[in-house]
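Schema walkthrough. Field components (list of strings):
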Amino acid sequence: MASAHNFPMQLPEPNRPMVRFMNVSKSYGALTVINNLNFEVAEGEMVSIIGPSGSGKTTVLRALMTLEAINEGVIYVDGKPLTHMPKGDKLIPANEKYLRGMRSSIGMCFQHFNLFPHMTALQNCMEGPVQVLGLSKSEARVRAEELLEMVGLIDKKDQHPSRLSGGQQQRVAIARALAMRPKVMLFDEVTSALDPEVIGEVTNVIRKLVREYRLTMLMVTHQMGFARDISDRVCFFYGGKIEEQGPPQELFTRPQRERTRQFLSAIKEAI
Amino acid sequence: MEWKWGFTWEILPSLLWATKNTILATIAGYILAMIGGLVFALMQRTGSKLLGSIIREFIDIVRSTPLLLQIFFLYYVAPEFGLRLSPWVAGISTLGLHYSAYLSEVYRSSLDAVPRGQWEACRALNLSSRDTYIRIVIPQALATALPGMGNYLVSMLKDTPMLSVIGVAELMLTANAIGSEHYRYLEPFTLVGIIFLLLSLPAASLVKLLENRLKTVLGL
Ligand SMILES: Nc1ncnc2c1ncn2[C@@H]1O[C@H](COP(=O)(O)OP(=O)(O)OP(=O)(O)O)[C@@H](O)[C@H]1O
Ligand SMILES: [Mg+2]
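Field assembly_structure (string):
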């Protein structure tokens, strides 16, 4: 990652976006996965990312979660650079210490839940708040129980993940991420590994988040109906950049670009 | 040649005393090996590339040369470089070092067996790398590592007779001394065999028990 000279040290107020990708590129060897991406998500906005397999959707979320380093550009979160840190009047690639300062403002849920198997649902939700945020055990417990209640799993709080269904595990994973009080939540195909009959219990939790929390959310999904229902905006990714974006009614009913049309009709046929 | 019970009872106390030494050497050597193995495994993962390849090289050397040679090196050759160790210290250190190499491989593969998603979840929760290892990764890796660790515990126990060559008064040396003193080897060596059996078998089932217990505690 080269040091970035022409990027601002901070994004100016007012109306600054919660998330901003500025000329971001990422490649694996010769394969460019994110291609000079410019992308903003406003505070409190729910944005869905759709697109064909390999278009870079997951990579965008992983870059934002700092699971993956980017090669070019800068990502800002809440006005501050995430992937880079200021040094003098330049931005240089962030070190681990700086990342640890920034990372708590982002939470992520994964396709395969990734709960800690040796901990109960409650312990999973208390781990970050106690170890990272420094909450006392009892404060963390209160917070974890509230969230497990919210996702409808308070009666399962003492179960280990192996005793929970996929849908239940994913709801615990959502509670675990929320327990860190992130400003931005990322969902990467959180229903793709689930049996059809339990998808609803997870999407209902996400609906609830949209209604009740002013969280900024970015969701990669193949569930077009769900994306259409709850998103403020839908972005269609193609070849590592946004091919087309807009409010769901428009993008789904009147796609402007040929590739968007092809993708949407291919999906319709699959259903 | 017939079995003499009188002689058996007569030599039993000194063999039991030697058993205590065998057990001591095994425990001390194994504790060293567990710690050394963990240090090697973690340094290979997190240390510099150079450090990693030095350790790799060292592990390969240890694993492809005889334990007996290593014991001789630490006891007879090291003093020429100013490192003078008692038979006990040299013996236990060699056992510890030798098995560190094997245990580090057990640890390494168990750490590798922890799914990548676990590391990523730790990162997403912003856990420190210390907490990631201690609270999340190592407990899960331990469950995978236990069977291998148990095997090496029993192997080490069976390797303690090699310490007799530098004069550590463990079972083999004691039995051999009894034999040459009385010109009778049947009883002492048979007893040694039985004692080793009585130590190895319970150790193996203890490890199995521990493994199951750990899995229950961890909810795996
Ligand atoms: N670690 C990696 N090394 C090499 N290539 C990778 C790596 N991770 C992802 N890729 C490649 O990058 C491209 C984009 O991957 P990404 O996971 O972002 O796609 P996606 O849009 O999420 O696709 P899907 O809908 O299948 O999940 C793919 O071609 C993938 O093979
Ligand atoms: Mg993906």
